Amino acid sequence: MPEETVAQFHIRSVQVLAEDETVDDELVPDLSDDELLTVYEQMKRSRRLDERAIALQRRGELGTYAPAIGQEAAQVGTAFALADDDWLVPSFREQPALLVHGTEPDAILQYAKGMEEGAEIPDGDGALPPAIPVGSQPLHATGIGWGEALQDRENVAITYFGDGATSEGDVYEAMNFAGVYDAQTVFVCQNNRYAISTGTEKQTNTETFAQKAIAAGIDCVQVDGNDVLGVYRVAREAVEKARNGEPVLIEALTYRRSMHTTSDDPSAYRESEEESEWEARDPILRFQRYLENRGVLDEETKEAITERIEEELAAAIEEANERREELDPADMFRHVYEDLPPELEEQLAAFEAEKGGESQ
Amino acid sequence: MSERLRMVEAVRDTLGAELARDDDVVVYGEDVGEAGGVFRATQGLIDDYPDRVFDTPVAEAGIVGAGVGLAATGMRPVAEIQFQSFLYQGFHQLAQHVARMRSRTRGTITCPMTIRTPYGGGIHALELHSESFEAGFAHIPGLKVVFPSSPAETKGLLTASIRSSDPVVFMEPTRLYRSFREEVPDDHEIPLGEARVVEPGEDITVVAWGSMLRETLDAVDDIDASVGVIDPRTLYPLDTETIVDSVKKTGRCAIVHEAPKTAGMAGEIIARLNEEAFLYLEAPIERVTGYDVPMPMFAREDDYLPDADRIEAGIRDTLEFG
Predict the structure, then answer these.
(1) What is the dihedral of CA B206, B207, B209, B212, to 10 degrees?
(2) Is the ipTM of this complex over 0.90?
């Protein structure tokens, strides 16, 4: 048999709202003014939560925190494409997506205060708690997307991870399983250029992260992750495909403008010029200018949004502080198993006796 | 109604019964579908339940991790990991997610998953097909670790494991899969966390589980003393009370496992006896175990594994002490 090409692939890349404010009218998603403003407000809300959280961490009121500054379009644009009953399977930097999908800011703050209370999933909220081990959670989204299909339900699962995570075998396993079982799952790789300090060029030799899907036989698309209109457009398509049992990988090209976490100092591995360059390419600024040009966003609306966010976050911080005050240490024993096994009964009794002794 | 079954048939019988009883049960793993599993423990299930029995890609992290998601949607995943040492490839999912999901979400998301896995030596298998890592699993809070030692026990314990709201690592001794038949009742559930007094005894208490229980029973046949034998059946939670009650009566104890000696489960059981029965002990507690060497390949596995002779010697030493 002569040599022949048996398969060929291409990677699509989408941008709707360019940095220079030009818009591809054919690709602009059909969103009402109210919806556009909601998208904007959600991005602002997450940005402000991150800013306040960093300040709180610096004052010793929060533990290590991973800001999503710069990645708001990639996350809000994708999460906004979900229905209420869809599932969100986050990594540890998913404040923008979580807020869109219904997580309250005080839960995010409680988690950052080292409280399991912040990882509670309220009844009916389709979400899993943050996943700290890099790249481990896409498999859960695959399981969810598979389970929903097995039960003839339409809900999809969307999962977020970074460029670094694609080097973990679990991410490939997740996409491969999803392809085999027609899982109703959307994978969102936020290529934010850094895995802590390691740049993408040291992470992989592939040209795109989108093409990681090709080996697993699932669909993929790359998008300008700082263009919220483009992100929403590809996410809506991906979510609809996933609903029909066609999993999709979205690579959102973005930039982690802030530190990996509050324990990290990016000046050790990147130049401030680079950061300044990306500050100018900020996704919120780009969308804000678009909304202003389109006449959707005026000063009065901006002020109202800012006021709402400040009020909400002040209340959330207060709520998280109150819950921290009420923390019952003995609760760590109570949720390990459905019923306390004798080992834990005994250890809990000893713990309470010791604590009781201290307080006397 | 009951049937005389081998252990591997009891596994299949239980899986079939639970698939029939509960539409949320899904059985999946490498080669468990059309081939019926490498030990044939799932043979025929895919014919009856084509929508809930799945062959998976060869990816243990995938099998364990996908189970987390399946469980979150309300399903009850029953996964087979082909050999226990391959569970190391899914160990991070087990330790980081399966075991912790309930506690880290304060009970709002649970993972009622059963991971069945053949373990242990004695069948002349390939390298890394004969591990016995129960102490590692028992050391992970949030998991239950279950060991059947006979066909009827398999039915009762696997039924309870699948119905449990907590994740279970279910360790099936490969050498007992086809070694004998036993009456297996139709509807049989053994509560997890309850040991079985296999033989009551007055002079010494021997604790053994899984395949080592059979060796222990062979060993005590030749001993002219009243030897009590206890099968803990679950290593976490561990029915300390039953073991302690027996040792308070006998004053002497030997513990048998095929896993390496250091940091094995025998050490934990000794620690509990130290806490609960110290003043009743008349002899140091004996450990008859594997050695602190990687499980050898099969040319040496009989030299590694505790057998009836070694167990008998350990029991005699303990009986004769003092």
Answers:
(1) -40
(2) yes
